[in-house]
Design goal:
This protein folds into 3 domains: 307 residues, Ribonuclease Z/Hydroxyacylglutathione hydrolase-like (Metallo-beta-lactamase, Chain A), CATH 3.60.15.10; 149 residues, Metallo-hydrolase/oxidoreductase (Rossmann fold); 104 residues, Ubiquitin-like (UB roll) (Roll), CATH 3.10.20. It has 627 residues and is α/β, with parallel strands linked by helices. Strand 14, helix 11 and strand 15 form a beta-alpha-beta unit. The N and C termini lie far apart (88 Å). It is 32% helix and 22% strand.
Length: 627
């Protein structure tokens, strides 16, 4: 087969598979997920009937019939509470309640800020969910990113309820739960686009296709007696998606005709005018850059969850007659799962193990790696600092960073880029070429969703305060009244009726810190101590007191960590010992001085002296033993 025929054959087999799931039934991923044993509320509907043009017209004309108005006005309010994802990026989670039934939308985590020393991940506060656990009917997940599924293992340990999501999302959740030893207990249910879950006699949840930077992203259309509540999840409008169908704009329009009570929409890119470019723009850039780097090994760093991007890297590599190796634990995990489920189309022989890269000429190899955000332990970072066991980079490497730095990561990404360039690598990033596009909707796409759904009320979600305010302004520009738009915060409970939207109270919300195996045991006092230690160091004073005579019999000895180097400050530490000795002797002579007072006296005297001498305030830890 000629090179041209080979490329044509691969392109034919690698068309966007819009009908990939057509005719297939949703399949459970692990042990206890068979639909056959579920209650009617937990059964997954395979399809949703789409109204024809005549019924659509009837729906539109019937949207405000007197009968509908009477039913809606007599209905109970829907209560909606965000537990994360407002005034922050990450840990998305919300709870919707109607009468004696409730369900959760998403359950994500976020990574700690620089001031959260030693913290691994940050979770939403589950206390309210656990308080109403008897009415929780399930968790509905919009897509498989960590900020939407990352907290699930921690919640499911406390509350084993059904989880509903798309096929890829369920597989990613199952993999995550396996790491936590929960895979066999979890009740995971695959729902196809258009599938409807009957939560109760008054609530249904429909999954609606949207485009995002990961396949199987869904919006949720929640049917209530007062109309639909539409939660977009993370989305963009991509008319030429790399895999899967484009966003189901027709269904959004039908929902608008049937009556949307409230819209909760993604606010991430609301500051950007215009439209988010299609993912295929990046594929075109890859093709051009691969031709440019034809004499070098190509290393591409991207998000491991961006299977659209990974597919296009593989396509460009195949067309350039390169082998592809994958580096980074999360990247290997995503690629493996995506191959097993048929999301990635990989020609036979294209993928090689990272151990095999030196068997091929460098110009015949592509490496797809983690580390696009400059994470210190990522594969790309280890390559940059010559700490990668399999890959040594140099002047014959062409490195593409196919991502935009998340706010706060600019310095770490810059540091990695500088180190790579010191080693002679040519580095390409977003500011130089179109090697990244966002997965979130810009202003004109948001306007399309607003226009199609025509909501009675609007609540901007998924963003910081600046994003929420800008999204509210966009809604005003489209004719919404200010009283019908609500910028809220986590923990606030919103009551929605057919005619009103208001905040009626608050519930516990905030952040729960995970450090190693400890969940929630790191609080403000521990963080304060860690910050104190990090900034000024530690001095430990050790002494022994005779229990019979009350005299100082040993010490004080002084140990310092992170304050000053002892050998270069011997005179200072001689003075530290003398101040501590005087404080201890004074206390020993005082019959009313107890152990607590003795430690306080030593701490206060040393703090005063050290600040006068050094203008520093190390943590002082007196250890006084009785012998």
């Amino acid at each position: 087969m000629s090179e041209k025929q080979k490329q044509s054959s691969f392109a034919k087999n690698n068309k966007p598979s819009n009908d990939r799931n057509k005719g297939k039934q949703p399949k459970p991923v692990s042990g206890k997920n068979e639909h056959k044993g579920d209650s009617p509320k937990e059964q997954t509907a395979r399809t949703t009937r789409k109204p024809n043009s005549k019924s659509s017209a009837r729906n539109q004309s019937a949207r405000h019939t007197p009968e509908k108005k009477r039913k809606a006005s007599s209905a109970m309010p829907v209560h909606y509470t965000m537990l994360g994802g407002l005034n922050e990026i990450g840990k998305n989670m919300s709870v919707l309640e109607y009468g004696n039934d409730a369900f959760i939308i998403d359950c994500g985590m976020t990574f700690p800020d620089e001031d959260l020393l030693g913290v691994d991940v940050v979770l939403p506060d589950f206390s309210y969910v656990l308080k109403i656990k008897d009415k929780i009917r399930g968790i509905f997940i919009t897509h498989g990113h960590e900020d939407h599924i990352g907290a699930l293992p921690y919640l499911l340990k406390e509350l084993n309820i059904p989880v509903y999501a798309g096929r890829l999302t369920v597989a990613l959740i199952a993999s995550k739960l396996k790491e936590h030893g929960l895979a066999n207990k979890a009740r995971l249910h695959v729902v196809e686009a258009g599938g409807v879950i009957h939560v109760s006699k008054d609530l249904t949840v429909e999954f609606v296709t949207v485009n995002h930077s990961i396949p199987d992203a869904m919006a949720l259309a929640i049917k209530t007696p007062m109309g639909y509540i539409v939660h977009t999840g993370d989305f963009k409008i991509d008319c030429t998606p790399v895999m899967g169908p484009m966003i189901d704009l027709a269904r959004f329009g039908q929902l608008g005709n049937e009556g949307v009570l409230a819209l909760m929409a993604d606010s991430t890119n609301v500051e950007r005018p215009g439209y988010t470019p299609s993912e295929r723009v990046v594929g075109e850039s890859f093709a051009n850059l691969f031709r440019k780097a034809y004499k070098k090994r190509i290393i591409v760093a991207t998000f491991s969850s961006n299977l659209h991007r990974i597919q296009q890297i593989m396509t460009a590599s195949f067309q350039d007659d390169r082998k592809v190796a994958v580096s980074g634990r999360s990247m290997i995990n995503f690629v493996t799962i995506a191959q097993e489920l048929g999301y990635l189309h990989v020609p036979e022989g294209l993928l090689i193990d990272i151990d095999e890269i030196n068997r091929y000429p460098k110009e015949r190899v592509t490496i797809i790696t983690t580390g696009s955000q400059g994470e210190p332990m990522s594969a790309l970072s280890r390559m940059a600092f010559s700490d990668h066991r399999k890959v040594e980079v140099g002047s014959d490497d062409y490195i593409i960073i196919s991502a935009t730095p998340i706010p706060g990561n600019e310095k770490t990404v810059g540091k990695v880029v500088n180190e790579l360039m010191k080693r002679g690598c040519e580095v390409v990033y977003e500011k130089m070429y179109d090697v990244h596009v966002s997965g979130h909707a810009c202003q004109e796409e948001l306007k399309i969703i607003h226009g199609l759904t025509r909501p009675r009320f609007f609540i901007p979600v998924h963003g910081e305060q600046k994003h929420l305010s800008k999204h509210a302004a966009l809604a005003y520009s489209m004719g919404m009244d200010e009283k019908d738009v609500l910028i809220t915060d986590i923990g606030k409970t919103i009551a929605l009726t057919a005619d009103s939207m208001s905040v009626i109270g608050s519930v516990p919300a905030g952040r729960v810190l995970v450090d190693g195996l400890g969940v929630g045991d790191v609080g403000s006092i521990v963080l304060r101590d860690r910050k104190h230690l990090a900034e000024d160091g530690l001095i430990v004073v050790v002494a022994a007191i005779d229990s019979a005579s009350g005299e100082l019999v040993s010490g004080p000895d002084v140990v310092s960590r992170g304050f000053v180097y002892v050998r270069e400050a011997e005179s200072l530490f001689d003075e530290v010992r003398e101040v501590a000795r005087r404080a201890l002797l004074d206390c020993c002579r005082n019959p009313h001085c107890d152990w607590s007072s003795m430690k306080t006296r030593v701490r206060d005297d040393l703090s005063r002296m050290l600040f006068q001498k050094t203008k520093r305030s190390p943590m002082i830890l007196p250890i006084i033993t009785e012998i």
